Amino acid sequence: MPRMLDVSDEVRAEIGDEEADRLLAGGHAPGAYDCTSCRTPGDCEQERTSTVLFIGDETAVLAFAHAGCLPSQVVKVTEEQLQGAVRSISSGAVPQEPAPAAPEQRAAPAPEQAVLGVTSGLVLIAGELHPALVVEPTAPIVRPGTTGAGDDFLPLLIEQGFRPVTELSTAPSVLHGWSVLLAMGQLHAVLQPGNHGGRPVAWWQAHQPLQVTEGWRTAANKHQQVLMFAAPVGSIGRQPREDLLRDALDKAAANGRLVAAALPLAGT
Q1: Quick one: 51 and 115 in the same domain?
Q2: Cβ 261 vs Cβ 174: under 8 Å
């Protein structure tokens, strides 16, 4: 039975026409697989399946995903991330999940900038759970090219299309061009539009893939988007539980210190 595989032009350019044609003909492609995004079983003989090529500094790994979870694409990761993925795939183990207490990861987006704290959690809005990322810098962020006191973090994001939030009664609108990269069952990056309509670039990239709970991952694949909330330094803090994170978001919104947008999953 023919494989229902999608091999994008981007993936084909990396692996070559011969290997791409071999995959489409059924060679080197498993019938059953674990989706690299949602980690649930798939079958490329029964459902549309995307080929996802992870490229490190020295090696590359071809993985498979439900077409509804990820499009066929090339994902560049560090060699350390790739080797960790290979060990996970080889063992057949799903990465161990943390307690649903909003895990946090910090990464510096560029030299001379404050470090961004990124926390994942589920947020209840209008009776429905939404996957969310909460971003808060560790220090005030000034506009590039300027010096002195002040914090331009929210104005800079508003200029990019994020909208002020005064209360969390409705989900924010979609910000097209931005996206969240969820791959190998983990959070890798928040992407923003490239210059002059070019390929998206990382606005924030995890120095180590951020573990998310199964509930968060399920909600992300259900909605095909993630809500991103951002607040200036000192507005949210490191909250150990999702209910406390929600309280902090409500307070930041009421104080006019919160912006938000819904970001599609990368490539969708």
Answers
A1: no
A2: yes
Range of the domain at 159: 104-264
Same domain, 122 and 218: yes
- pTM across the whole model: 0.64
> In terms of domains, do 135 and 160 share one?
yes
Residue 113 located in a structural domain: yes
- Alpha helix (H) residue ranges in the chain: 9-15, 17-24, 79-91, 153-160, 214-223, 242-254
Last residue of a domain, one of 46, 64, 91: 91
Spatial separation of the C-alpha atoms in residues 261 and 174, rounded to whole Å:
6
Continuous segment of H or E residues that includes residue 231: none
Say whether both 149 and 87 belong to one domain: no
Q: Which residues of 130-156 are buried (b: 16+ CB within 10 A; e: fewer)?
A: bbbbbbbbeeebbeeeeeeeebbbbeb
Is the CB of residue 61 less than 8 Å from the CB of residue 82?
Answer: yes
| Number of domains within the chain | 2
Q: In the 8-state DSSP scheme, what is residue 177?
A: T
- SS3 category, 244: helix
For the record, the structure tokens of 38 come out as 């949602």
pLDDT by residue (tens digit) across 169-182? 999 999 988 999 88
State residue 94's pLDDT score: 30
CA atoms within 13 A on the CB side of 220: 33
* Pairing between β-strand 60-66 and β-strand 5-6 as defined by DSSP bridges: unpaired
Residues 51 and 136 in one domain: no
pLDDT in tens, 195-249: 766 677 888 888 777 888 989 999 998 999 999 999 999 999 888 888 999 999 9
Q: Residues 177-194: what's their mean pLDDT?
A: 85
Report yes or no on 45 lying in a domain.
Answer: yes
